[in-house]
Amino acid sequence: SSGINAEYGELWVILRGFLICIEIISMSLRDIESWLGTNASKDTSSFQHRMYERSLNQILQVLRRIKCLTYGMFLITFTTLILYLARDVMTVHLISQQASFPVTAGQHKRSGFAATIHMEFGQRECTPQQNIIFTKTHKTGSSTITNILLRYGEVYNKTQLLYKYPSSTEYKKLTADRLLTGRDTANIFAQHANYDHDFLKSHIYNTSKTFTILRSPVSQFLSAFSFFEKTELYPAQTFEESVKLFFRSHGHDRYLERSWFCKNCANLVNANSVDMGFDLEAYVKSDNRDKFQADFLEKASKTWDLVLITEYFDLSLVLLKRRFCLRFEDILYLRSLERIKKERVEEPYTLAKIAEMQKLDIALYNYFNATFWAEVEKEEGIFEELAIFQKLNKQVQSFCVQGSRVGYQGTYANVLSPKGRENFQCIAMNTRCLNFIRLLEARDDTAVSEGELKTIASEYNDPDSLSLNQIIHMNRFENVIDLTYKNRFRF
Questions:
Q1: 346-389 pLDDT, tens per residue?
Q2: Which H or E run contains 214?
Q3: Cα distances (angstroms) measured from residue 139 to each of 169, 209, 279, 373
Q4: Are the C-beta atoms of residues 177 and 164 closer than 8 Å to each other?
């Protein structure tokens, strides 16, 4: 079946390879045996003929041994495949048991396989986090996490702190006058904005938790340089030459020494520090910059309850699941805004220049990378849970997606399967954050007129992304994990 091919493709290829080898060997054996039989009655007195016949007999013996060995390997591989299938059939049998679990605040009663694995790996005594502040950083995988939080809000009926329609995710200043009419407080905030502790704490309900994600600053710089099309500002024959031209153009040796301003550096240089509220101007003007930075790190360690790391993305999501008492279906994802062409810089001097400019982000990353692993070490069984999550996510991706195409700014865009287009979790996972947010704003902003809603409905009509009608009416509670496992075993 297609489901088995998707999951055990490598084993199928090996089995087919063995069958082809056995067929080729069998054909060769038949040809040699036929030749020997045909020439057995002929004059075999010549030395050359006897040597040729002897060589063929030796080849015949070798081929027979290879055939036996190939048969043995085929049987071992086939048995392995059967055992895998038997294990998964037993897993699917659990679905029919309709296992259920105690319902906690803010969650819907579920049954089936998704419920079973939650019982096995879930935190039975924890309460799901109701109120969440996510500091969205640039080019760190944060769009995927924003998508997770938007879906979480939709499935569990949590309100999002949104701007009036239409908004821009690059609008950095948080002001009350831009919030949706009649919604001064909400459960979740997950949009781009320079972190403003007092503002967010006053507009997100009490007991909120704050988290963010960071990426290796040199890698983040290169990704942002490509994504924000800085190569058009600094045209050169290669990407690396364009980066070099960037450094030669503006006297960047003065940056963070005599000036906090950096031309064309927005969302590029020390962007994660800025996203987290670091004051570059105050830093440059400070008499003791080391102390200023140390104070910021100390404050940050108390402000963010959890800091994830892009380089360990899946592990970060499992840690998030544990700390916020989420379910596996809550942290599923499809790749988002991942560039098809991976640009690289290899010259050590250029990499050193990037690191020099990114020194604030490097200090931030190194500090929270250490705290991340300290948190992971506290979690018993987290790597076993990580393996389960990666398997589930791979299977769900196979269920939801049937292909890919070139999408926004040269990034991958998924083409959903017919069944994926019918499931809210699949189609929501595949919706760009900006589109998702604007649809929510349009739906929830009481100031949007009927005419504007019709215009919005006509603009968002991609069959592989959410539409306004789906945002308003689509069933949120059909569990994609259960659907994936049921679909896998329909032969």
A1: 899 999 989 988 999 999 999 999 999 999 999 999 999 999 99
A2: strand 209-214
A3: 13, 22, 20, 21
A4: no
